[in-house]
Amino acid sequence: MTIMIIGLVLFLGVHSVRIFAEPWRQARIQQLGEPAWKGIYSLVALIGLVLTIWGYGQTRLDPVFVWNPPVALRHLTVLLMIPALILLVAAYVPGNAIKARLGHPMLLAVKVWALAHLLSNGRLGDIVLFAAFLVWAIMAFRAARRREPASRTDSRSSATITTVVVGLVAYGLFAAFLHPWLIGVPVM
């Protein structure tokens, strides 16, 4: 658990600099230059991500069960992952109505993903991991909205349809193949 927590502190910590220390971040960018800042940021985030994944894997070897979620919550998680993946795709498809309306779809995707997985996982390691991401996503979304509220920019129907279709295809691929292969847990 300790390794995972260290990883979470590094990964979410570096991703929280903009939430809690924007003036310090800007000063570092001015001091180091944007490429060096991005390099350091990326290295810390990568180390944090690797430690989080490794530590999470370790928590699964000797799990501590806090509660036993009902099967119905697994089904709810499967359903909630559909909008989560559509929101994730919306962050990258230019000109879609989802991003134009919501402003920060990736952070919303992380919120939905984390909440969905909190509902269907009762091990302590799962709870720590998903709760950490949920709290971070809530704070990051609030900070992002204060910095730059969702704009009502024009969107194209074709971009929105593409977003939904790609999100659904990504969901299907992840549910059928990638989740069991990467995470080692079948979706159903």
Succession of helices and strands: HHHHHHHHH
What structural category arises from helix and sheet content?
mainly alpha
Helix content: over 70%
| Average residue-wise pLDDT | 93
* Biggest sheet layout: none
Précis, in short:
The chain has 188 residues and is mainly alpha-helical.
Keywords summarizing the entry:
single chain; 188 residues; mainly alpha; globular
Model description:
- The protein is an all-alpha fold and 188 residues long.
- The protein is built from 9 helices and no strands.
- The protein has helices at residues 2-15, 17-20, 22-32, 34-61, 71-90, 97-102, 105-120, 124-147, 157-183.
- α5 runs antiparallel to α7 and α7 (105-120) packs antiparallel against α8 (124-147).
- 25% of the residues are buried.
- The model has no long low-confidence stretch (mean pLDDT 93).
Topology readout:
Blueprint: H1 2-15, H2 17-20, H3 22-32, H4 34-61, H5 71-90, H6 97-102, H7 105-120, H8 124-147, H9 157-183
